Amino acid sequence: MEESVKLRVPPLTGQQKQPLALINYLYIGHFLARWGTRMWEFSVGLYMINIWPESLLYAAIYGAVESASIAVCGPIIGRWVDKLSSLKVLQLWLVTQNLSFVIAGASVVALLIHSSLKFTHFSIFMLLVLLINVCGGIGVLSTLAGTILIEREWLSVISEDQPPELLTKMNSLTRRIDLCCKLLAPVITGFIISFVSLKASAITLALWNTVSVWVEYWLFTSVYEGIPALGQSSQKRMARYLQCDQEMNNLTSEEDSLLPVTECRSELADRKWNKKISEKISEIPYIAAWRVYLQQEVALPGLALALLFFTVLSFGTLMTATLEWEGIPAYVIGLGRGINAVIGIAATVVYPVLQSRISTVRTGLWSIWSQDLVTESDRLIVGGVQNSLQSLMELLAYIMGIIISDPRDFWKLAVISFQAVTLAAFLYCIHSYHVRKHLFHFDRMLWAKCFQRAS
């Protein structure tokens, strides 16, 4: 047994150190990309409540725009990533994400410097607010494309023909990197806001994205060029997509040639027109992606996961803006969000241990199912739809924030959030019972054993 292991994993040579270094490049690039995103996610709520105090309206509108962008365009992004080459997706992702955050940061600086614009030049004020919302929506869509590419495809390709636990470890580590950014970026940004100024934090955000985009591009392209399997997977995916389109066109041509010659031309034209309409509707990226998603085994737990995003209690834009309205310093809010992230980091440490001892269903990590239980050809599409569904729930939460925009009524939003999380737990219990045919091992419980002995 030891000899076979040695044959499969020989001593490290120069050639084997290079993939390890490239994987580290992947982690560093992922860290840089997520850091900029987490800085913006934390800061935008504080910016909005300072731009228009005494109301959560602008913060809720921004959150609604951001969530609506993913909810509407998420499935399209998934199919777009599936259609283009990995290198092209990488270029568009990094440029659009970082450029959008730079423009949004500059707009925030302009609004903070010229705070009287809403009274003197309201049209310019609204134009800058609109620019912040549009750039935020574009930034979150490009971030989604990068997340799908890295977490749904690259990690799976790199871990192919490797021990099964490698994918679990890589998933846990990338998630841990994201949560570390979620922990540290708000804390550092909060200290900048509290002890320097809000304008300084916006300038820092813009400078970070201006500089980091070049480093990120070099790191990710080094990984892509250094691991041939990534390029091969991209070519296979594009070839599969083109083949599907060609087969659909050939099928349509063959069916048209089999139509009876004796039919009236008007009836033939009507039938062809109706058929083309139905085909075009079914081929709409949004509808086609949802149809693929609903056929997956992970659809119900995916819905349960999405319901967890229907909350205002996760230190998002609304909760951050409310705490700022309450007069809590920004660094304290950042520390609170950091503590929130620590729990998530602990989960990434505990998961590999739990997954090795109990089943994946019991552990309940949806992202692992989306890689293990979804076929490779559907993996990117399912990832896009899942992110879209989660953003739809976030959108509903922000719509509730628009309706209940008075910070004094925030407790009502908290009650609704609790109900949504309870529903998510109920749906997951249904899925767990369907898979395992039970929820608990009652016969192994202490009180059950005592009852059996007494009887």
List keywords for this structure.
455 residues; mainly alpha; Growth Hormone, Chain: A; 19 helices; 83% helix
Radius of gyration: 25 Å
Strand content: under 5%
Outline, from the CA principal axes?
globular
Text of the CATH class: Mainly Alpha
**Tally of alpha and pi helices:** 19
This entry's quaternary arrangement is single chain
Regions with little confidence, pLDDT below 50 for 5+ residues: 1-18, 261-265, 365-369
| Structural class by helix and strand composition | mainly alpha
> Architecture, according to CATH?
Up-down Bundle
Short description:
InterPro entries: Ferroportin-1, MFS_trans_sf. One of its GO terms (molecular function) is iron ion transmembrane transporter activity. By secondary structure, the chain is mainly alpha-helical.
